């Protein structure tokens, strides 16, 4: 199972108002496990993550969440009633501690059912102190500055060997040594970026779009940067760049950035990249770019030559997909197959236009790197849909859901229900079995692997059931079937 988060299923229906109103609540606990109803009220995967990371049992994790929620609400209420003497609050086990600067405030805290701790500085004073200390110290040596409410002080984390210089700067600013703690840390913080096709990156004051993730970085348009040019968000360097003549480039990124075999569909999700097989003239293609997002059209020709002001570029893919400045370098996909990198064109995404793309395989070959795929092109597991008695089919866009064979469901006797789903190649489609319980649809079984195809088997009692198909990533037509007792 690869789900650590789940978009709540919300299947629209005009025929079953009672069901539609309760679907989201009934399915919110899917990722945490439908056999554990006590976790259904929390964000998908949260309880499982607490069990894993904090070494808790399910009941301990749920109890902790409930306690923290109650104490957090109490803390907010107390903070609103206190005057300027409020100095922060923290939870320790099942108890709430509130720091205050005077006795009258402490009495209010105790009356509200929390533990009062009298301190010297209010939270607003600590915040001002933190700002003053940060401004006084050499910025390049600071890892982080924050207020520690439990110790009523400011903490400055600095690079190794910088403690003396930072402490001296803080002292020179007139800040007492006891109010600021300077601590050396072995590692400075850094941004962590997933490199995904269609996302923006920056070269000086210009913006372009990532084409496709490749070994150690990504391919993009050559006109976005010359060899040696540096990028930010993600940070990298153009190792290969060819323009005009061609229009490809390869940017290597640092170890903190993670190239992912996916493309942003600008609809809240991504499309897995399965390979780079060339599509045919007339094939439907979609483009992702950081200015205009996700737009589709068809391939009109290959091996086109375009005359830009900077010179001619040969061997391009011509399409009727629109694009605008900033989309340069972005991804062109045919289904889950990488096709090209946005080069240039005419028109816009308001009135339409013509856009040309640098073939991706030429760019990969020139940089001597390999395309990173997201697993969408693997051979799907057998689902034996043809053996199921009742068939269904449909089509979904990425992020869409559909109830099968309809929103009102089907009635069955006790026994085993089996179902399967055959989704479009290179996508990630999921299958859920839901049952009416107490007037709401509740998920009782699910197939949620990273593949396009899923199979589900569930032994249950008599009642009303239905299937929900979820286009978790990617779009296209699906078929499926099910068998009832």
Topology, element by element:
Elements: H1 17-20, H2 23-27, H3 46-54, H4 58-81, E1 86-92, E2 95-100, H5 103-111, E3 115-118, H6 123-136, E4 142-148, E5 153-159, H7 163-172, E6 180-185, E7 193-197, E8 200-203, E9 206-209, E10 212-214, E11 217-220, E12 230-231, E13 236-242, E14 248-253, E15 257-264, E16 270-272, E17 284-289, E18 293-308, E19 311-319, E20 331-334, E21 337-348, E22 352-359, H8 360-367, E23 390-396, E24 401-404, E25 410-412, E26 415-422, E27 428-437, E28 440-447, E29 453-460, E30 463-473, E31 476-483
Parallel strand pairs: 2-3, 5-6, 7-15
Antiparallel strand pairs: 1-2, 4-5, 8-9, 10-11, 11-14, 12-13, 13-14, 15-16, 17-18, 17-20, 18-19, 19-22, 20-21, 21-22, 23-31, 24-30, 25-30, 26-29, 26-31, 27-28, 27-30
Helix pairs in contact: 3-4, 6-7
């Amino acid at each position: 199972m690869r789900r650590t988060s789940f978009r709540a299923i919300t299947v629209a229906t005009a025929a079953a108002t009672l069901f539609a109103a309760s679907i989201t609540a009934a399915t919110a606990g899917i990722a945490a496990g439908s056999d554990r109803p006590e976790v259904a009220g929390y964000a998908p995967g949260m309880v499982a993550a607490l069990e894993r990371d904090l070494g808790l049992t399910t009941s301990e994790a749920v109890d902790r969440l409930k306690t923290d929620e109650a104490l957090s609400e109490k803390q907010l209420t107390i903070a609103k009633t206190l005057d300027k003497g409020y100095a922060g609050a923290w939870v320790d086990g099942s108890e709430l501690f509130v720091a205050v600067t005077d006795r009258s405030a402490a009495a209010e805290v105790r009356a509200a059912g929390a533990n009062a701790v009298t301190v010297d500085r209010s939270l607003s004073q600590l915040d001002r102190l933190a700002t003053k200390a940060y401004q006084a110290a050499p910025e390049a040596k600071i890892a982080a500055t924050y207020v520690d409410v439990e110790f009523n002080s400011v903490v400055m984390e600095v690079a190794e060997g910088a403690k003396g210089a930072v402490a001296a700067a803080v002292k020179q600013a007139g800040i007492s040594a006891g109010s600021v703690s300077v601590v050396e840390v072995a590692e400075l913080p850094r941004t962590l970026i997933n490199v995904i096709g269609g996302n923006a990156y920056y070269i000086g004051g210009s913006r372009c779009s990532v084409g496709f993730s490749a070994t150690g970085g990504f391919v993009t348009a050559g006109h976005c940067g010359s060899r040696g040019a540096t990028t930010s968000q993600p940070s990298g360097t153009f190792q290969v760049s060819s323009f005009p003549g061609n229009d490809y480039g390869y940017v290597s990124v640092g170890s903190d950035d993670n190239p992912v075999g996916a493309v942003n569909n600008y609809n809240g999700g991504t499309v897995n990249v399965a390979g780079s097989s060339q599509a045919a003239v007339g094939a439907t293609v979609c483009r992702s770019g950081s200015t205009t997002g996700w737009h589709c059209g068809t391939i009109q020709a290959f091996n086109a030559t375009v005359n830009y002001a900077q010179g001619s570029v040969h061997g391009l893919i011509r399409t009727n997909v629109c694009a605008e400045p900033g989309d340069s370098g972005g991804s062109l996909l045919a289904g889950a197959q990488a096709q090209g990198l946005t080069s240039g064109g005419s028109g816009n995404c308001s009135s339409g236009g013509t856009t040309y793309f640098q073939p991706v395989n030429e760019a990969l070959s020139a940089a001597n790197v390999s395309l990173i795929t997201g697993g969408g092109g693997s051979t799907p597991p057998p689902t034996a849909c043809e053996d199921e008695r009742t068939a269904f089919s449909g089509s979904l866009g990425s992020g869409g859901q559909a109830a099968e064979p309809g929103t009102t469901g089907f009635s069955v006797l006790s026994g085993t229900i089996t179902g399967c789903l055959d989704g479009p190649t290179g996508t990630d489609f999921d299958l859920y079995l839901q049952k009416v319980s107490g007037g709401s649809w509740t998920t009782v079984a699910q197939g949620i692997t990273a593949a396009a195809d899923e199979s589900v088997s569930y032994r249950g009692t008599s009642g009303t059931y239905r299937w929900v198909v979820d286009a978790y990533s990617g779009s296209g037509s699906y078929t499926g079937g099910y068998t009832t007792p």
